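Figure 2 data, in text form.
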Amino acid sequence: MASRVGCFGCHGPGGRVGKRNPRSFKGYIPPWRGRDFNELVRDDEELRRWILDGKIDRLESNPLARYFTGRQVIQMPAYRDILNDEEVEALITYIHWLQNQEL
């Protein structure tokens, strides 16, 4: 499912390798595991919002964070009208599984 909707195009094969993203805070889209991802997404509800809406309120309400998220070349798309609830939960489960794998 993540492959079908294009997630791996930005988060790399299996969600393991980020893609370059000019004008973003760190210059790339983080993979779904590792320090950068864990700094961006604090909990499952934020991850769910990011998947569904393409953004999360905590970053949008911070002027500095909003500056970088708004100007980055590759924007996170909103999947609200693309993924159903079961698919979103399956993606979150996969991300948790990936984060628990050894590097």
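Caption note: The radius of gyration is 13 Å.
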